[in-house]
Design a protein that fits this description.
The chain is an all-alpha fold. The protein is built from 22 helices and 2 strands. The chain is elongated.
Length: 577
Amino acid sequence: MEIDIFKDILVPVIGGLGIFMLGLEFMANGIQALSVNSMRNFLAKAAGTPIKGVMAGTLITGVIQSSTAMTVMVVGLVNAGVVGLRPAISVIMGANIGTTLGNGLIALPLGPLGLICGGVFALVYCFAKSEKVRNIALACMGFALIFYGLNLMTGGLRPLRNMPEVMELLQTLRADSYFNLIKCVLIAAGITAMIHSSSATIGIVMGLGAAGVLDWTTAVAFSLGADLGTTITSWMASLNLSKNAKRAAYAHISFNIIGVCITVPLFFVSIGVLQWTMGVFGMGDPGLAVMVDGKETFPLVPVAVGLYSTVFNIFNTALLFPFVGVFERVLSRVGRSDEEDIEDYSTPKFLSREVANDFARAVPAIQQETTRHLQAGAMFLNIARGDRKAPSDPGEHYLATDILSRDIRAYTANLMKEDLPYDQLDLIASLIEEADFTAALTESMHQVARRVKREKFSPQAQAIVETALNKLDVSLRAIMPDHGIADPQMPAGHVSYPDVEELRAKTLALGPNAGAAERGTILALLGSVERAEILIRRIDAERKSVNRKSVLARANIRRENREQRMDDGGLSPVPAE
């Protein structure tokens, strides 16, 4: 029978591949819209230790069905300082296991039901009023389209077996020797890197295997390469991020490369074990054909590919998990510079959970952390001056201070209890106000550093900029007594700084000594300085609005009395019955 290449092959293969990938996209988008924020928050809390990290990575990736999305999320959380490098490595290990759950589902023989299920959920998506119902329908529609697309691809690829030219070409892609095995792995890795989806590559391979175009051993070899190629996306996502984010991506790459390098020498042994296992559990031989409508199909090839991919990732994680600490130490040295010795301000230093519910002990911790936040903000002046010991990227440093600010406000707000006396509630409100003003002050100083860093000034303009920075430096001493040179030993009035209006006038008078862009930058910078000085005065006034020492003293007395009553109650004899 003559084969119509366009109708019998191109239409179902390209259409099926498109529907398959669209299904993956719909399913990921629907699930992520429902749960990605809660998953991100859960991950930030759960990934405290390597074991918890593996479990969290497996669970979340199993839910959102995208190891790519998961690793990109992890890289972003590392960049933001929410997750450390060590737990991030373990989360990525778990993500590799979680994504194989989807590969196992894809292997189920549900192709004929895919179209009708996809149609039903598409109607629900179109007519539903609730956003939540629409997202559920979108995820279910994507799930159904995956099977229908795979079924179309399998049917379209089947005629290739009757084309001698194609079969001759595919003979060169048989994993029948170690050389050919490595070639298959690298080709699959390249394809996965181009389409950014290991699930899509594995879906294509399952279709080729089920149609009998690829023998089942070669299909399994391609799935191994898909695990290697999927690391490219996380690496690309980390290119413009922090060094620790890059290291998390390198962990993903090195983890999968090591796993593939260990598995390749054991490949033919593992294939024999897989074939034996499938026979023992009554699944059958994946290499045996089954006649469907008078045509040979190999329905167990997708099952074999899914099983191998799952076992490979579990084996790889179990093998390398004990070396998470080694990964962290080695990767921490990659691209290390003196800048990394700078304190990480994205992580609270004094906000201990142990005292979170003890007002008398929590308030001093909040005050210390707020002072630390101010110190982080003052570093923007060092960044503006080009200090080598200061962070090089003002944006990255601001992101760290913003995270710290949110943690301070959340920790402080958590102190609010209904049974607290009014004076304590008033102090908590004052601390929240101070934290808010501090965040705004930090943002203004970030704007100062950002503007200075991106503009090159003439000598006359640079003098005005230096004066503005020094003026702000001195103003900070009102709320940071030890900032800069503490209590300079100079006669009163020996050093004075012009006000902002005078500096504006000097800027406008620069004339030909500075370009329009320079003058515009300085005027914007002076606006930020003015806002910063207003906020400094607001912080100072807020600290004086409540007698904090007195409130804390009364709180300590109350706590001591309460503890005393508890001790007395604990020592009192129990009457006999």
